[in-house]
Amino acid sequence: MVKHIILWTLKEELSAEEKTAVKAGIKAGLEGLAGRIPGLLEIKVYTEGLPSSNVDLMLDSAFVDEAALKGYAVHPEHVAVADGKVRPYTAVRSCMDYEV
What we know:
Low-confidence stretches: none
Mean pLDDT: 98
Number of strands: 4
Shape: globular
Structural class: alpha+beta
Helix content: 25-40%
Order of helices and strands: EHEEHHE
Strand order of the largest sheet: 2-3-1-4
């Protein structure tokens, strides 16, 4: 199994209300991919970190193998969410993929 973890920081110019709406949109969009992408085992977006956090949200996902992760990266439904709900609003993206 391969884990795919993403941490995002939203753009500073977004108001608190806009950040709340953006986080909800990202969560709904990405979690809505469950059962729709071959090899995607689990997908969860966390939007409410503790005050000690220095990022705005996190994606925690799991795939059957690295090939499934690569397929997810280019899958049209994932690309639509990334291009429409994530990339326009994020300033920093950090990623770690690893085998379990």
